[in-house]
Amino acid sequence: MDQTVGTNCASQVVIVRGEVDLASASNLRDNIERARQAGDERALVIDVQGVTFIDSTGLSELLRPAIAGYSVTLVRPSRAVQTMLDLAGVSELFAVSS
Fold this sequence. Notes:
CATH class: Alpha Beta
Helix content: 25-40%
Number of helices: 3
Strand order of the largest sheet: 1-2-3-4-5
CATH superfamily: STAS domain
Order of helices and strands: EEHEHEHE
Largest sheet: 5 strands, mixed
Radius of gyration: 12 Å
CATH topology: Transcription Regulator spoIIAA
Protein backbone atom coordinates (compact mmCIF):
# COMPACT_ATOMS: atom_id res chain seq x y z
CA MET A 1 0.00 0.00 0.00
CA ASP A 2 1.29 3.44 -0.93
CA GLN A 3 0.27 6.47 1.11
CA THR A 4 1.10 10.14 1.18
CA VAL A 5 -0.03 13.01 3.38
CA GLY A 6 -0.32 16.61 2.22
CA THR A 7 -2.51 19.68 2.34
CA ASN A 8 -5.26 20.84 0.03
CA CYS A 9 -6.77 24.19 0.97
CA ALA A 10 -7.72 24.05 4.67
CA SER A 11 -7.98 20.27 4.82
CA GLN A 12 -5.35 17.63 5.25
CA VAL A 13 -5.24 15.01 2.49
CA VAL A 14 -4.24 11.36 2.85
CA ILE A 15 -3.78 9.55 -0.48
CA VAL A 16 -4.15 5.77 -0.27
CA ARG A 17 -3.32 3.25 -3.00
CA GLY A 18 -3.33 -0.54 -3.17
CA GLU A 19 -4.55 -2.95 -0.50
CA VAL A 20 -5.68 -1.75 2.92
CA ASP A 21 -5.77 -4.75 5.24
CA LEU A 22 -4.48 -6.03 8.55
CA ALA A 23 -0.89 -5.78 7.34
CA SER A 24 -1.15 -2.12 6.28
CA ALA A 25 -3.84 -0.68 8.57
CA SER A 26 -1.34 0.61 11.14
CA ASN A 27 0.42 2.59 8.41
CA LEU A 28 -2.92 4.13 7.40
CA ARG A 29 -3.66 4.92 11.06
CA ASP A 30 -0.29 6.67 11.42
CA ASN A 31 -0.82 8.74 8.27
CA ILE A 32 -4.34 9.75 9.27
CA GLU A 33 -3.08 10.71 12.72
CA ARG A 34 -0.26 12.76 11.16
CA ALA A 35 -2.79 14.57 8.99
CA ARG A 36 -5.07 15.20 11.98
CA GLN A 37 -2.22 16.70 13.99
CA ALA A 38 -1.04 18.89 11.11
CA GLY A 39 -4.43 20.42 10.37
CA ASP A 40 -6.09 23.38 12.01
CA GLU A 41 -9.54 22.30 10.93
CA ARG A 42 -11.42 19.21 12.06
CA ALA A 43 -11.60 18.05 8.47
CA LEU A 44 -9.78 15.32 6.59
CA VAL A 45 -9.78 14.35 2.95
CA ILE A 46 -8.85 10.76 2.16
CA ASP A 47 -8.29 9.96 -1.50
CA VAL A 48 -9.21 6.30 -1.88
CA GLN A 49 -9.59 6.05 -5.64
CA GLY A 50 -6.55 3.78 -5.92
CA VAL A 51 -7.58 1.30 -3.23
CA THR A 52 -7.85 -2.15 -4.79
CA PHE A 53 -8.86 -4.05 -1.64
CA ILE A 54 -10.03 -3.06 1.84
CA ASP A 55 -10.95 -5.29 4.75
CA SER A 56 -12.62 -4.53 8.09
CA THR A 57 -9.37 -3.33 9.68
CA GLY A 58 -8.90 -0.82 6.88
CA LEU A 59 -12.50 0.30 7.22
CA SER A 60 -12.07 0.77 10.96
CA GLU A 61 -9.14 3.13 10.30
CA LEU A 62 -11.27 5.20 7.91
CA LEU A 63 -14.03 5.31 10.53
CA ARG A 64 -11.77 6.34 13.44
CA PRO A 65 -11.60 10.09 12.62
CA ALA A 66 -15.30 10.24 11.71
CA ILE A 67 -16.22 8.74 15.08
CA ALA A 68 -13.88 11.26 16.74
CA GLY A 69 -15.95 14.10 15.26
CA TYR A 70 -13.90 14.94 12.19
CA SER A 71 -15.53 15.74 8.89
CA VAL A 72 -14.12 13.06 6.59
CA THR A 73 -14.42 13.34 2.82
CA LEU A 74 -13.57 10.31 0.73
CA VAL A 75 -12.36 11.25 -2.74
CA ARG A 76 -13.47 9.04 -5.61
CA PRO A 77 -14.02 5.84 -3.61
CA SER A 78 -12.96 2.82 -5.62
CA ARG A 79 -15.43 0.00 -6.12
CA ALA A 80 -13.73 -1.95 -3.31
CA VAL A 81 -14.11 0.93 -0.85
CA GLN A 82 -17.70 1.75 -1.85
CA THR A 83 -18.70 -1.90 -1.55
CA MET A 84 -17.21 -2.14 1.96
CA LEU A 85 -18.93 1.10 3.04
CA ASP A 86 -22.26 -0.15 1.71
CA LEU A 87 -21.93 -3.63 3.25
CA ALA A 88 -21.02 -2.14 6.63
CA GLY A 89 -23.84 0.42 6.41
CA VAL A 90 -21.54 3.37 7.17
CA SER A 91 -21.66 5.34 3.92
CA GLU A 92 -23.58 8.15 5.61
CA LEU A 93 -20.66 8.90 7.95
CA PHE A 94 -18.58 10.21 5.06
CA ALA A 95 -18.90 12.97 2.53
CA VAL A 96 -17.96 11.78 -0.95
CA SER A 97 -16.21 13.87 -3.60
CA SER A 98 -15.86 12.83 -7.20
